[in-house]
Write a structure and sequence with these properties.
The structure holds 2 protein chains of 2 kinds. Chain A is α/β, with parallel strands linked by helices. Chain A contains 9 helices and 10 strands. The longest helix of chain B has 27 residues. The chains are: A alpha/beta, B mainly alpha.
Chain lengths: 241, 317
């Protein structure tokens, strides 16, 4: 479904993503983990079209989307959420979701029906007439999820949906993501810091460090990988006598 | 349901009043009404770009002027009736508007940078026109009185101009209102709120910004031709000056950007006030301009959403 082929991104002299390749199949939940500054968000921006890679290709469902603009990529069924939530603040919750729904639906009436349906499933139906800026952070994250799902994606990329949430709120969001994944058959690629989330949720994990892919596998395999442990905890020092 | 009935009733009453009352007014007052509707019209057109899409354009006066220069030059040099000329002028204004929006999208010029782009465009056009004799240069062009006035957009009576601009105003508000209820309207709102987020959910922001600017500039073009025919005269100092653009923008901001009717209400208030200032403070020279500026500052401080925006907060729809 998604294939990242030898992608590199330089910002001036700094290499944020260095020859990264991976493949993902439809129906999976795949996570990208790594310490701060590992290049996770840059990789996301490259896939979703916000940045153009210095070299390499990104292939999504037979389309070579390397230099496409985000809206065109979204039309083919790939969308994302942002690490720092970006709802349309001065619009109400329903209007926010309608904008997403219009990606695949032609009329406002159809889009409204569809959006109400999504809001019901996401649990924001009672708040549909509230302005987005008046929601709590957890509410805004839910709204951003609802807006992304409204575009009818086949692949949804989530950038740290749990960041800034309380444990209870995180657990609710995890449940929500699971339901979305199972009911709508949406493939999910996510970035996460909270490792226990990754372990329960994902089928496969990709570890980035300093812009390079250092490990890939099931959560269990990765958690026992020497390089991953080093990236997170540092090298084991052997003190010489 | 009830509220909807009262709203419809209000619209019908206002329309009836607007079409009948001027018949009994003196020319002096009709002139004020015309100026209210004229700036209201341009404000409503500007609002498509400035209010709905959130791109602060400072060249709408110039776009109107460019359209007027084209229509008037075609009439004085080639004898083409302004009824046709205004479509050519408006189409040209539309294309220029789209060009500006394209440049802005291409080079990522947003908010203040877009405002600066439009500002410099205005000045370039004004300076070029000042030195271009074909379109009258610095002294401008007088529109020669035609022996077939109606055929050439010339009316002896002010009241005729009043009905023309009234019709244009109604058209503009309808277009703007239908736009806000359409897919494009939702997309423009999304662009105004957050361009990056709009892109991720499938809004081709460049395309919609260019379309909005094109539509707005096209409609603005008709306003420019109207003004030229009303004054029977065009010159760079009147039709291409920055004051003209600023007046459009201040009316729209005063009335409330983002709603279809706000810019008209703002323009009405502004024209009445400026007329009052001129009458009561005019002897003191330019004092009325100071009062005008002071009032705008107060509005921006205490009613940032404009008259219509503040009313909406008082009465939830």
């Amino acid at each position: 479904m998604l294939e990242v082929v030898d992608v590199t991104k330089n910002f001036g002299g700094m290499t944020a993503v260095h020859h990264v390749s991976f493949k993902m199949e439809g129906g999976q939940i795949v996570s990208i983990i790594g310490p701060n500054g590992a290049g996770k968000t840059t990789l996301f921006n490259l896939i979703s079209g916000y940045l153009k890679p210095t070299s390499g290709d990104i292939i999504f469902n037979t389309y070579k989307i390397t230099n496409w603009r985000p809206s065109r990529i979204c039309k083919k069924g790939l969308t994302r959420t942002f690490q720092i939530v970006q709802p349309f603040m001065e619009m109400n919750v329903l209007e926010n979701v309608i904008v997403g729904a219009l990606n695949c639906l032609g009329t406002i009436a159809e889009a409204t029906d569809y959006s109400l349906d999504i809001l019901k499933r996401i649990g924001l139906l009672e708040r549909r007439n509230q302005l987005a800026k008046n929601l709590t952070l957890a509410g805004k994250k839910r709204l951003e999820l609802a807006r992304a799902i409204a575009t009818s994606p086949v692949l949804l990329m989530l950038d740290e949906v749990m960041a800034g949430l309380t444990p209870v709120e995180s657990r609710e969001i995890i449940e929500l993501i699971k339901t979305i994944h199972e009911e709508q058959k949406i493939t999910i690629l996510l970035i996460e810091h909270v490792l226990n989330v990754i372990m329960t949720l994902s089928d496969r994990v990709i570890v980035l460090d300093h812009g390079e892919k250092i490990a890939e596998g099931t959560p269990r395999e990765v958690s026992q990988d020497q390089k991953t442990i080093e990236a997170y905890l540092g090298k084991k020092r052997v003190w010489s006598k | 349901m009830n509220l909807k009935f009262y709203k419809t009733l209000l619209v019908v009453l206002v329309l009836m009043a607007a079409s009948i009352i001027p018949l009994f007014l003196k020319d002096r007052y009709i002139h004020i009404l015309i100026m209210m509707l004229f700036y209201g019209y341009l404000g409503v057109c500007w609002n498509i770009v400035g209010g709905l899409t959130g791109m602060l354009s400072l060249c709408h006066g110039t776009l109107a002027g460019v359209s007027a220069f084209i229509a008037v030059s075609l009439f004085t040099r080639l004898g083409m009736t302004p009824w046709i000329g205004m479509f050519l002028g408006a189409a040209f204004a539309g294309i220029v508007g789209m060009g500006i929006a394209h440049i802005a999208s291409r080079y990522g010029l947003r908010s203040m940078y877009f405002a600066l782009l439009t500002l410099s465009f205005s000045e370039i056009v004004r300076l070029l026109t000042l030195h271009w004799e074909f379109v009258g240069g610095a002294s401008g062009l007088l529109i020669p009185i035609s022996n077939k006035p109606f055929m050439n957009y010339q009316f002896g009576e002010k009241i005729h101009f009043y009905y023309v601009i009234l019709a244009m105003q109604i058209m503009a508000i309808l277009i703007s209102y239908m736009l806000t209820k359409s897919k494009m309207g939702y997309y423009l709102m999304a662009i105004k709120e957050n361009e990056d987020a709009a892109e991720t959910v499938g809004v081709n922001t460049s395309k919609y910004k260019i379309a909005a600017t094109g539509l707005s500039s096209f409609l603005t073009g008709f306003g420019g031709v109207f003004y030229a025919q009303y004054l029977m005269y065009i010159s760079p100092d009147v039709n291409l000056s920055l004051d003209y653009s600023i007046e459009i923008v201040s009316g729209a901001i005063l009335g409330g950007t983002g709603s279809s009717i706000g810019p008209l209400i703002g323009a009405c208030v502004l024209q009445v006030l400026s007329e009052l200032f001129r009458v009561f403070l005019g002897e003191l020279g330019t004092v009325h301009l100071i009062a005008y500026g002071l009032m705008l500052m107060l509005v921006i401080m205490y009613m940032p959403k404009g008259i219509v925006g503040s009313l909406k907060e008082l009465v939830p729809s």
